[in-house]
Amino acid sequence: xxxxxxxGGTPLMGEVEIGGAKNxxxxxxxxxxxxxxxxxxxxxxxVRDINVLIDAxxxxxxxxxxxxxxxxxxxxxxxxxxxxxxxYIKKIRASYYLLGALLGKFKKAEVTLPxxxxxxxxxxxxxxxxxxxxxxxxxxxxGMIKVKADRLVGSHIFFDAVSVGATINVMLAAALAEGNTVxxxxxxxxxxxxxxxxxxxxxxxxxxxxxxIIRIKGVERLHGTEYSVIPDQIEAGTFMFAAAITNxxxxxxxxxxxxxxxxxxxxxxxxxxxxxxxxxIRVIATDVxxxxxxxxxxxxxxxTDMQPQMTVILSMAQGTSTxxxxxxxxxxxxxxxxxxxxxxITVEGNVAVIEGVDKLTGASLNAHxxxxxxxxxxxxxxxxxxTTVEDIHFIQRGxxxxxEKLSKLGGKIEKVDSxxxxxxxxLRVS
Length: 430
Ligand code: UD1
Prior knowledge:
There is one protein chain. The protein is of the alpha/beta class and 430 residues long. It folds into two domains: 3-19 and 231-429, UDP-n-acetylglucosamine1-carboxyvinyl-transferase, Chain, CATH 3.65.10; 22-228, Alpha-beta prism (UDP-n-acetylglucosamine1-carboxyvinyl-transferase, Chain). It has 14 helices and 24 strands. It has helices at 22-32, 48-59, 97-106, 125-133, 164-175, 190-201, 233-245, 261-270, 307-315, 335-340, 370-382, 393-396, 402-408, 419-429, and strands at 3-7, 13-17, 38-42, 63-68, 71-75, 83-84, 108-112, 137-141, 144-148, 156-158, 180-184, 205-207, 213-217, 225-228, 249-253, 273-276, 280-284, 293-295, 320-324, 344-348, 351-355, 364-366, 386-390, 412-416. The protein has a four-stranded mixed sheet, sandwiched between helices. The protein has a four-stranded mixed sheet with strand order 2-15-17-16. The protein has a four-stranded mixed sheet with strand order 4-5-3-14, covered by helices on one side. α5 (164-175) links the parallel β10 (156-158) and β11. The longest helix has 13 residues, at 233-245. Residues 23, 26, 93-94, 122-127, 161, 163-166, 187, 303-305, 327-328 line the site of uridine-diphosphate-N-acetylglucosamine.
């Protein structure tokens, strides 16, 4: 089983290039199948979730041509099945975007119930509410969600929860519905805007993405185009926080600083220095960090996907910090792993209280989910001695060449597959 072996204690220094946003790309890929023409998507991250979705898209009959590692050309003309069901697609959350895309184009879709990280119950009632408002019937049986409609007709939808997935899914279906749709209480994440931009480039008529009211005038058909995925806000944030955690100095390149404002603000609060450029952010850490309070919220609030990385910073800050998780109820599972490293954290319900310690010490850890896995790696890079992180397949779902990027910044980290490789690494870095 592959795992990471890490020798902590080296401040990360230098430059890192951020790839395309995984969560955006997943929705963009689904959108490509809504036209018979070819759509080229560039700046795709080469990560497991993306590759699983591309395989699923090929699996329903779409023509997929890989231009290179980060670019794909997809044509939905050859689709012959409206059913996406295989053992891999079950593992990714974003399989549900095929529902909205297929429903919009073919008025029919069957997709296996979504998986994804185990970070709490992840209902899809708002997706269903949206599809039903457009005139579809939705049935869940044998682990599949089945949606179909004779006609899709625009509607006024008020979401009861701010959901990224439901907002995108309804936007996809409504783009090809008859008449006008208004989505209220929509999510405002950068990837909502990215998906709307692609759909509009394909001929859709969507206004207001990025605000909490999105207005969609349905069109009869969409056409081909070429589109580049926005930079990954969470990958960028992870490297920004890596600088803080290891007392380093990192220039994070190919980012949209506006998308990272809340993260920069929190880094300043704990005592880091931030330099902002047009497409880059430099984080210069100080040895001593201050405690603070963090509450996860929908965009533009503090992202839940950066919560574990924030907790790692605060575990080594002076004084007592609190982290409140309001999006997913089960997102503190990694705290037990951090306490093995000497962190002092107590969790009650959705609140973590963190007493900063002077240092963390290396330990054998397990990644429980994608972002928490990345956070444990960063903790290992700061800790005294050796840390191993197992179950790194979670991390590979969302970070391209994670260990390579960290190594280039001076981190002592390697992916190993055997005891022998682990010993070799230890000898080399000791
Ligand atoms: C997406 C991201 C994930 C991120 C999350 C919040 C992808 C593939 N995943 O997940 O990385 O952590 O946004 O930024 O883009 N909810 C309902 N009913 C629904 C849908 C959601 O009650 O039908 C609730 C959820 O339980 C949660 C909240 O709404 O409390 C936000 O979930 P949502 O924004 O839908 O997250 P995902 O789209 O699954």
